[in-house]
């Protein structure tokens, strides 16, 4: 099978970039894979890219040349914003190539892309024809102008049928699929497939579990850092925090004030794997609609149970009382109660939850499972 993968890199690398590279490498082991990438720029170059994002003829020409050069059987798009734009879909369809597109975020439903604004979920755009409230609030980059232009781009291509041209959308969770179907996006259910992300088998040596808990991730408001710190302050519960971000200062200050909180800084993949294999459980207190948290998959691969908030993707990934525990998002006292519950659980029961977490990885999140799903999706759209 000949596959062309198209991806637009953001200014700062993130999870979407990692998934693009992972899937490209995975597919290349047996298929003929080519990639076409774009890069978002800063300053006036970035403004120029954004200006042309509704109909970027230069990007369209690059897509057409790539199709003519590689003659793909299918095109898989990961991200279009902003240096490419939706024109890539129309070019592919004019060339008669089926298109698959992964929905890594919620940008096609709301300019925020995260359905999160001012410290809480923001879903007002999902059921309206045009997101005027999101524009007034400047949910994208704090700018009314940028929010309007992004909203206009999505709306324009909704009106002219571009989004309906995608043969198959890949939603990362059942929750995400339901959000798109229960919206004004206007694409029927038979054009959606649920396929999770994956992580490679961790190379971990057996380690004895220690009594501390672990948080790994970006130190940002939507990740629930304030909830996390409040739950562990003035307690005898041990917490290690790994990561970096805007709230690093708050984490560092908490670690200086409370001896039970330790800040590890930013860790590489090997160090993260070691921490996951050693901790008692991973805390995931996010307060926004996560797409597909790779940290949870990495924890499952290490046989590490979860204590996660019950919002977005997490309830579909973490089985209450089996692979971990769930608590009401944003509720620090509820989180502390779950941690206390875990702390007083006997070791055999903890080991059983860890075993089920590992089984969940083997059942859903291995490279082999992912490749089978991907090739099945491609074959279906090519046949149709």
Offer a few descriptive terms.
384 residues; alpha/beta; Rossmann fold; six-stranded parallel sheet; 16% strand; globular
The helix tally amounts to 15
CATH class call of the largest domain: Alpha Beta
How would you name the CATH homologous superfamily of the largest domain?
Answer: Glycogen Phosphorylase B
Helix/strand/pairing category: alpha/beta
* CATH topology term of the largest domain: Rossmann fold
Mean pLDDT: 96
Q: Provide the low-confidence segments as ranges.
A: none
Radius of gyration: 21 Å
Order of helices and strands: EHEHHEHEEEHHEHEEHEHEHEHEHEHHH
The total count of strands amounts to: 14
Kindly give the count of domains: 2
Distance N to C terminus: 15 Å
Oligomer: single chain
Proportion of residues in β-strands: 15-25%
Major sheet summary line: 6 strands, parallel
Instruction: Determine the fraction of residues in helical runs and give it as a percent range.
Output: 40-55%
Shape: globular
In CATH, the architecture of the largest domain is 3-Layer(aba) Sandwich
Overview of this protein structure:
The chain is α/β, with parallel strands linked by helices. Helices cover 42% and strands 16% of the residues. The chain has 15 helices and 14 strands. It has helices spanning 15-28, 43-52, 57-70, 87-94, 132-137, 144-159, 174-181, 225-232, 248-257, 269-278, 294-301, 314-317, 332-343, 347-364, 367-383, and strands spanning 2-9, 32-39, 74-79, 99-103, 116-117, 120-121, 168-171, 192-194, 213-216, 239-242, 261-265, 281-284, 306-309, 324-327. The protein has a six-stranded parallel sheet with strand order 2-1-3-4-7-8, with helices on both faces. It has a six-stranded parallel sheet with strand order 11-10-9-12-13-14, sandwiched between helices. Strands 5-6 form a two-stranded antiparallel sheet. Helix 3 (57-70) runs parallel beside helix 4 (87-94) and helix 11 (294-301) packs across helix 14.
